[in-house]
Amino acid sequence: MMHFTAMFPRRLTPEHLTPAQSLPVGLRTLQGLRGRLLSPAAPWLAVVVVIAVLLSVNALLGRSIADAGLNPLMDLMRFLAVGVVVVNLRRSWLGAAAEERAKMWWSLVGLALLMAAIALPIGGNIFLSATGWSEPTVAWRPILLDLGLAGLLWGLWMAVFYSGAADSAAAARRVVALTAPALTGIGIATGLEVLLSSALVARVSLPRGLGTAVAVVVMIVGYSRGLAYVERGLEQIPGIADEATPATR
Predict the structure, then answer these.
(1) How far is CA 88 from CA 12, 85, 237, in A?
(2) Pick from 219, 239, 143, 214: nearest CA to 177
(3) Is the pTM of this model over 0.90?
(4) What is the tens place of the pLDDT at every residue in 20-48?
(5) With helix as H, strand as E and coil as C, how does the chain read?
(6) What is each CA distance from 90 to 1, 9, 102, 160, 177, in whole angstroms?
(7) Which of 83-97, 147-161, 167-181, 200-214 has the lowest mean pLDDT?
């Protein structure tokens, strides 16, 4: 994805980036690294380095090589990679023509599906760890990740080959608006379950899962308002307001 977004819909070069001298000191190094990652070979080299580091860390800790992908360092690398992808897309978006933006919307749909598939298992891991609930019998993590990858590939396919009349901007907004309440709900459920189970269960007899039930109600009640809030936020990005459908303005 880092390689793809550095090439699509136009090739980005370090000259397209904000000069490092105009950024805060803490961001200059990251901006320099981002510039290096625009070269065709750099993302692949970064993959090799990350895998080598993860395998070495697991070996030093005496852990199985098969568990390298579960190392917290891997989650950090995933978030950094997604960050590079997002800022690349933003840079391309600001300089894109209307036809290029129509294609980019489909890539944003695919990227949003992939980010949801990564973020939901991470949120689920935090929820299970905080509440002490047992793991579901269904292998939900690989299912979500496989669905996210399928969504990414579908979005990229639509971006490259499709030129019909479907409203890709509306699809992107819906994906983001569905994902944001889900992640918020997981956070609320985690906090409520911890609060109810550790702080109140010794004094009051409360049914297990009450916090999750409350979080689901909050999500349902606040969905329409959250949807409008997310769409208003997206439409603040230059170029999106002009492409918003009348129903969402």
Answers:
(1) 8, 5, 15
(2) 219
(3) no
(4) 667 777 677 777 788 888 888 888 998 89
(5) CHHHHCCCCCCCCHHHCCCHHHCCHHHHHHHHHHHHCCCCCHHHHHHHHHHHHHHHHHHHCCCCHHHHHHCHHHHHHHHHHHHHHHHHHHHHHHCCCHHHHHHHHHHHHHHHHHHHHHHHHHHHHHHHHHHCCCCCCCCHHHHHHHHHHHHHHHHHHHHHHCCCCCCHHHHHHHHHHHHHHHHHHHHHHHHHHHHHHHHHCCCCCCCCCHHHHHHHHHHHHHHHHHHHHHHHHHHCCCCHHHHCCHHHC
(6) 14, 12, 14, 18, 19
(7) 200-214
Q: How confident is the model at residue 248 (pLDDT cuts 50, 70, 90)?
A: very low
- Residues 175 and 75: their CA atoms lie apart, in Å, by 22
Residue 159 · residue 8 · CB < 8 Å: yes
From the centroid of its chain, how far is CA 77? 13
Question: Side chain identity at 14, as an amino acid letter?
Answer: P
User: What are the tens digits of pLDDT across the range 130-177?
Assistant: 777 777 788 888 898 899 899 988 888 888 887 666 777 777 777 877
Q: Could you tell me if 74 and 145 are in contact, meaning their C-beta atoms sit under 8 angstroms apart?
A: no
The distance of Cα 135 from the centroid of its chain, to the nearest Å, equals: 23
| Residue with token string 């977004």 | 5
| 216/218 Cα distance (integer angstroms) | 5
